């Protein structure tokens, strides 16, 4: 069983919010041919994409060729739109959530869906999270690493995390609006340096501030192997040790970081082993970043190439950890069949 936890999707008929609301920051999907398009932002090409990013049939063909049983679908972070007026951002989120839910319902044994919510307003974000989880039956929520420049420990986000814990909502944290943007345009450093650094700041904010101490049952997974966070964690602990006047938690950051999950998208068996040694074999989920240029091909390649993993560890990393993180096993009804189409693969495992 191979579950690709980290893949992105966008509706092919994304409305033109630039014309509708008069703000250039809205992403547009401009098709260049039947099998390709440009994601446009402020009149410039943000990213060139192929039909893999919206066509479920194309995705399934790729999955079959590359040995993937299930993809977990999540929005492209450029669509988060935390900067927008709340009513408009909610509309953008709902369009994507409905599209993802419909895709999952159409192909229940191949896809699981994550939704998106407008994090600039916690009350509205909670309402849409409620709809995603309890009406659309999505498996979790993807959020960004910051909300309009505020870290995830901002007090106004507390109630959102409280509800996510109460409802057992898995949260996938993906970098967006990265730090040091003015220093990373050259060499595509925004993707290779900015994103890992941005992810580290988000994770550090949650463990240092007391968010994870307050909500110990939060289920959080970080993209791209946690970025640089796993490797600066000892430095965070040292800071906690030498600056007692800055402490906000009972234990050092590494204590709370053990609760985090990480996808496997770091390309190197050495770093996979490091994640396992530091956080545990049950905290790493296979993820490829399909269908973008930096994706791993085939998905799970780095896990396959990591020597000295037991068969149990490979099963955990390639699929079982994702099922547990996303509560897929728990959503199978008493008759052994799934309560929602996206849970079909869980019943196939006999859980």
TrEMBL record:
UniProt entry tagged with the keyword Ligase: no
Pfam family, one: Amidohydro_2
EC number assigned by the record: 4.1.1.45
Record keywords: Decarboxylase, Hydrolase, Lyase, Metal-binding, Zinc
GO CC field: cytosol
Keyword Ion transport: no
Amidohydrolase-related domain boundaries: 3-328
Pathway connected to this protein: Secondary metabolite metabolism; quinolate metabolism
Taxonomy, superkingdom: Bacteria
One BP term from GO: secondary metabolic process
Transmembrane stretches, start-end: none
InterPro entries, alphabetized: ACMSD (IPR032465), Amidohydro-rel (IPR006680), Metal_Hydrolase (IPR032466)
Subunit structure: Monomer.
Protein name (database record): 2-amino-3-carboxymuconate-6-semialdehyde decarboxylase
Lineage: Bacteria, Bacillati, Bacillota, Bacilli, Bacillales
């Amino acid at each position: 069983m191979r579950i690709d936890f980290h893949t992105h999707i966008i509706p092919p008929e994304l409305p033109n919010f630039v014309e509708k609301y008069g703000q250039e920051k809205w992403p547009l999907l401009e098709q260049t041919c039947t099998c390709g398009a440009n994601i446009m932002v402020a009149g410039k090409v943000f990213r060139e994409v192929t039909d893999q990013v919206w066509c479920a049939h194309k995705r399934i063909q790729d999955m079959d060729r590359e040995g993937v049983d299930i993809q977990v679908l999540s929005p492209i972070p450029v669509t988060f739109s935390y900067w927008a007026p709340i009513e408009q951002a909610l509309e953008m989120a709902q369009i994507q959530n409905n599209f993802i839910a419909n895709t999952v319902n159409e192909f229940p044994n191949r896809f699981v869906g994550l939704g998106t919510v407008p994090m600039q307003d916690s009350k509205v974000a909670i309402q849409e999270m409620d709809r995603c989880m309890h009406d659309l039956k999505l498996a979790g929520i993807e959020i960004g690493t910051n909300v309009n420049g505020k870290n995830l420990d901002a007090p106004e986000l507390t109630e959102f995390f409280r509800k996510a814990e109460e409802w057992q909502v898995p949260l996938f944290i993906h970098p967006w609006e990265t730090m040091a943007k003015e220093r990373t345009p050259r060499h595509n450093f925004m993707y290779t340096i900015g994103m890992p650094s941005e992810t580290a700041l988000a994770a550090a904010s949650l463990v240092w501030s007391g968010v994870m101490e307050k909500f110990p049952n939060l289920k959080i997974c970080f993209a791209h192997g946690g970025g640089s966070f796993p490797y600066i964690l000892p430095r965070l602990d040292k800071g906690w040790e030498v600056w007692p006047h800055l402490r906000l938690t009972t234990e050092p950051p590494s204590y709370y970081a053990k609760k985090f999950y990480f996808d496997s998208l770091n390309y190197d068996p050495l770093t996979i082993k490091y994640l396992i040694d530091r956080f545990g074999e049950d905290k790493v989920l296979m993820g490829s970043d399909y269908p973008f240029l930096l994706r791993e091909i085939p998905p799970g390649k780095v896990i396959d190439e990591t020597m000295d993993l037991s068969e149990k560890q490979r099963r955990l990393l390639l699929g079982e950890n994702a099922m547990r993180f996303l509560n897929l096993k728990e959503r199978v009804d008493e008759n052994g069949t799934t309560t929602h189409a996206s849970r079909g693969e869980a019943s196939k495992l006999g859980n």
